[in-house]
């Protein structure tokens, strides 16, 4: 029997911070897992190093489900982003190993292709409306069939989703940047720029928008109703989702589709949203929702209720997660869309990936396993630099949801 012989945790910042797990079996097969939790990287690295690695050595890498149950139920302390990200890293690495041992790309192990490619959306943004429109034009030229639009709200510094450098990277400062927020200004401004995008470019592509947890349910209902003529593919995270019931009120007022789940980590966190059809797209990901094994469980539940998938894919999800996501997206029957933000050059000096972008779609590598690599030597050139996500404050100085 093959055994897990080595488990190494790498923490590095090639362009941004990533935590990566590499498992090696007694047969010399390696598997990679992403364990990155933006702004809380070392909590997962330590959970893995101190509490998971010692339990893995000597186990049979073929028993993916059993190891998942062992780490989840065996911890006694359940759910939560740190635990679920750590379990995800192990699970993803084990699927990588299983694919390599079988000589098959992971999507084949998940039932094979359900589609030819994976529809993706990327992020257009602007410091003002003309800049946003130019950016949408650029993404159209690059062949994207789905584009998310965000513009800086006048008078509200550092609005969510507006790119400063080559890619949108919100975790940019050594301590959290504090950004002002005005719901009133946002509600006045955002519908107008979404309309401007449709006026200039028409309707033959999907338009998305991320509210990023900033509204109350009734404000979100008003926003969704107001933008119905823009025919959004979705409005994302209109209100925080700790209280799943809150989405019923939004639903009662608007036909704008709703997407939720990028910061949720288990099937229990989306159970009511799915079974009561309070959302249209579930955005849980491989890395933050317990790996391929658990994500597949969430997606299968969603399929029963005609909820489609729309996994998170910002740059804080490493190329290992992106590859794993493409394998899952290709296989599941209820795939909707995949978020995709290409990583910066430094990141790709450390990770290699066979994922290909063509005509607005992603395609997986046909190599056995996930088709990703990690260059540990290259990673040493990029030591870990802590970076935090911003914190939002209302104009009266009180803390708001960022
Ligand atoms: C998205 C997300 C991200 C998150 C980031 C947090 O829709 O891509 O909202 O931009 O804010 O991933 O780590
Ligand atoms: Mg989002």
TrEMBL record:
InterPro entries: D-mannonate_dehydratase-like, DgoD-like, Enolase-like_C_sf, Enolase-like_N, Enolase_C-like, Mandel_Rmase/mucon_lact_enz_CS, Mandelate_racemase_C, Mandelate_racemase_N_dom
Gene3D superfamilies the UniProt entry points to: Enolase-like C-terminal domain, Enolase-like, N-terminal domain
Domain Mandelate racemase/muconate lactonizing enzyme C-terminal: start-end pairs: 130-257
SMART domains for the chain: MR_MLE
Any Pfam family: MR_MLE_C
Protein name per Swiss-Prot or TrEMBL: D-galactonate dehydratase family protein
Protein species of origin: Amycolatopsis acididurans
């Amino acid at each position: 029997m093959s055994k897990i012989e080595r488990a190494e945790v790498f923490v590095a910042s090639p362009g941004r911070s990533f935590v990566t797990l590499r498992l090696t079996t007694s047969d010399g097969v390696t598997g990679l897992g992403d364990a990155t939790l933006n702004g809380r990287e070392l909590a997962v690295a330590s959970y893995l190093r101190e509490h998971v690695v010692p339990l893995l050595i000597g186990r049979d890498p073929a028993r993916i489900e059993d190891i998942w149950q062992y780490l989840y139920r065996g911890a006694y302390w359940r759910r939560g982003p740190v635990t679920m990200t750590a379990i995800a890293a192990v699970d993803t690495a084990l699927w990588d190993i299983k694919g390599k041992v079988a000589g098959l790309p992971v999507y084949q192990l998940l039932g094979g292709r359900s589609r030819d490619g994976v529809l993706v959306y990327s992020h257009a943004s602007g410091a003002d409306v003309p800049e946003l429109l130019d950016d949408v034009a650029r993404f159209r030229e690059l062949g994207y069939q789905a584009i998310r639009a965000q513009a800086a709200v006048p008078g509200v510094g550092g609005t969510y989703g507006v790119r400063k450098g080559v890619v949108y990277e919100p975790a940019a400062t050594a301590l959290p940047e504090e950004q002002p927020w005005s719901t009133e200004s946002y509600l006045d401004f955002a519908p107008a720029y979404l309309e401007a995008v449709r006026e200039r470019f028409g309707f033959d592509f999907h338009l998305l928008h991320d509210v990023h947890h900033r509204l109350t349910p009734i404000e979100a209902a008003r926003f969704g109703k107001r933008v119905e003529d823009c025919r959004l593919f979705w409005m994302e995270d209109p209100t925080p989702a700790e209280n799943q019931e809150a989405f019923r009120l939004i639903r009662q007022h608007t036909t704008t589709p709703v997407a939720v789940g990028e910061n949720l980590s288990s099937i229990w966190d989306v159970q009511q949203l799915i079974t009561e059809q309070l959302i249209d797209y579930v955005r849980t990901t491989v890395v933050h929702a317990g790996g391929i094994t658990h994500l597949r469980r969430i997606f299968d539940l969603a399929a029963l209720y005609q909820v489609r998938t729309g996994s998170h894919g910002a740059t804080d999800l490493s190329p290992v997660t992106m590859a794993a996501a493409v394998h899952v997206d290709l296989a599941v029957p209820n795939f909707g869309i995949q978020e995709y933000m290409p990583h910066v050059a430094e990141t790709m000096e450390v990770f290699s990936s066979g994922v290909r972008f063509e005509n607005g779609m992603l395609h997986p590598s046909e190599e056995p396993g996930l088709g990703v690599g990690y260059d540990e030597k290259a990673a040493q050139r990029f030591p870990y630099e802590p970076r935090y996500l911003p914190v939002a404050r209302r104009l009266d100085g009180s803390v708001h949801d960022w």
